[in-house]
Design a protein that fits this description.
alpha/beta; Rossmann fold; 8 strands; globular
């Protein structure tokens, strides 16, 4: 691949660019972003080789879309309109159903691979790009059968070269599961941060008393609202369902506290400790 275009040169797009430069040193990386300051910073950081516009992506061998999901829904049809028949277009959005539905009847649907790398940090912008962000992480691919096989191969080779584990899902199933394991954790983090800020008006007290548990739990509250609001909007039904279940569990815990049922509280925590084995890959 000679010409690779990154649309959105923030954390995800910039991290793709860093690793692509390392594994495909002969490729030229072009950056497209609505924020020209981001493009200039990406050039300065050597994330990309040149600035570009949508009008030039006909020259692309690969296009990676790493912009908010609402912008992906709007721009993906135009991107597919402009690419050549031999171009693979990959998105990295945290929701999949609306994106896939938007282009299901597009004449160049075969050029698009719907994917979601399960990787990231709470930071945003070109400065947040990281070498090796995707190594050892899972990438979920949806509706793979809709993508031309020869074009799939380009993307799958890239993911393999980045050290990613590949898993296949349907868009609807992806959005339901990701609401539990990603979207809910971001909401919890935002609302914990909100609760503490409203209660603890003295910022110095928060700074001095916040331990590692609070920091790790509220870390995601530093995430970009520009990215997360569209995610919640597109996955509204699933997010509401997860919130209902989460709120019910919180109410149950509160009831145990009110009834001084600390044996019940111990049992709740003991049962949930099983998550440690799951996350460590023991089961």
């Amino acid at each position: 691949m000679k010409n690779i275009y990154i649309i959105g040169v923030g954390l995800i797009g910039g991290s793709f660019a860093l690793d692509i430069k390392a594994i495909y040193p002969k490729a030229t990386l072009f950056g497209i972003d609505h924020n020209d300051e981001h493009l200039s910073k990406a050039l300065q950081l050597n994330l990309i080789d040149q600035k570009a516009t949508l009008e030039t992506i006909v020259n692309a061998d690969m296009v990676i879309i790493a912009i908010p999901v609402d912008a992906t829904v709007r721009q993906l049809p135009e991107i597919l309109d402009r690419v050549s028949d031999d171009t693979i277009v990959i998105d990295a959005g945290s929701t999949k159903e609306d994106i896939c539905l938007k282009v299901k009847d597009h004449p160049k649907r075969r050029n698009f691979l719907a994917s979601h790398p399960i990787a990231g940090t709470e930071f945003s912008g070109p400065e947040s790009a990281l070498h090796g962000l995707f190594n050892g992480k899972t990438i979920i691919i949806c509706d793979v059968e809709e993508t031309a096989f020869k074009l799939q191969e380009k993307a799958l080779k890239l993911f393999s070269d980045l050290g990613m584990r590949i898993r296949y899902m349907k868009p609807k199933s992806h959005d339901k599961h990701i609401a539990y394991v990603s979207h809910l954790s971001h909401i919890s983090s935002f609302m914990l941060g909100k609760t503490v800020i409203e209660k603890e008006k003295n910022e110095r007290d928060i700074f001095d008393m916040a331990g590692s548990g609070f920091e790790s739990t509220v870390r995601l509250a530093k995430s970009s609202p520009d990215m997360w609001t569209p995610i919640f909007k597109q996955n509204k039904t699933n997010v509401i369902e997860t919130l209902e279940e989460y709120i019910n569990n919180l109410k149950h815990f509160k009831a145990l506290m009110e009834n001084s049922d600390f044996e019940g509280i111990y049992k709740e925590m003991e049962d949930t400790n099983h998550i440690k084995q799951i996350l460590e890959g023991i089961v």
